[in-house]
Amino acid sequence: MSTTTESIQRSLSRLETRLDDDCSQSRHTNGYSGLKGGTLDSSDAEARLALTVSKEDFARMRLVGQFNLGFVLAVRPEQVADGPETKSGNEHLFIIDQHAADEKFKFERLSQTTKITPQQLVTPKALELTAVEEEIILANTEALEANGFIIDYDDSGETPVGQRCRLLSLPTSRGVTFKLSDLEELLHLLSERMSGEMVRPTKVRRMLAMRACRSSIMVGKTLSSKQMEKVVSNMGEMEKPWNCPHGRPTMRHLAGLGEWSAWREDSTWTTGDGDIKGGATDWAGWLRSKA
Questions:
Q1: What share of the chain is helix, strand, coil (3-state, %, to 5)?
Q2: Tens of pLDDT along 96-147?
Q3: Which helix (H) or strand (E) holds 74?
Q4: What residue ranges do the domains of the chain occupy?
Q5: C-alpha torsion 21→22→23→29, nearest 10
Q6: Mean pLDDT, all residues of the chain
Q7: Do the Cβ atoms of 218 and 99 come closer than 8 Å?
Q8: Which CATH number fits domain 110-213: 3.40.50.1980, 3.40.50.150, 3.90.70.10, 3.30.1370.100?
Q9: Cβ burial, residue 174 (10 Å; 0-12/13-18/19+)
């Protein structure tokens, strides 16, 4: 092979230019235009790295189908000024775990509605609390009873502060034993909870998560289109749809579909030597050559 240093240098320059153009096009297609020399512009680094998905997006997703009897594939169309529109260059493909998504939906419903059966103590247990903890108990009686803790409060004014509460019952569940440490955890969670949020101690969460898991759609189950649509739409109704109660992710972003629409069968391209290649494929001619 005969070549020269100048020829190699020209080929490398053309290749480098071509690669820069391709990378620029890919960043533009997927919305990541902040990449400069392998780094992100610090002024918008977080915005460029994060693909934002809101709960409202699930209502707009277009169902693709079921994959491997365990996952639902869905496409989120790009949001434009006059509403959602199907634009293949800006769509994103997501894969949703059918079991994890359904489990989280049922877990949140159980957390909001389930009342744990209380087991009355033979002898009420006097509690030694701080004034703040007593105020938490007074302000969250319903949440405590929903978790199976029934507490009597002495408001006569004769009992010293910190000794006005007595524990009358503890939660009961088959195979699960509750202690005062569970009440302490629940009081701590109640002190930090957001308004309207149902708080559950760790043992109750585990119990509800097990119930939700057993009644959820299992991996290996064939789903109809309506069932898949229900799985996707339910994610938009959850408080925190991003992972199941056991920590398993409910969904993952697979790809921006813009990079798949960047090439067509009749596209042309330029080789390193500057020659134009491509064009429509002559499938009839190819078949004749194989005959």
A1: 40, 20, 40
A2: 999 999 999 999 999 988 888 899 999 999 999 999 999 999 999 999 999 9
A3: strand 71-76
A4: 5-40+262-290, 110-213
A5: 110
A6: 79
A7: yes
A8: 3.30.1370.100
A9: exposed
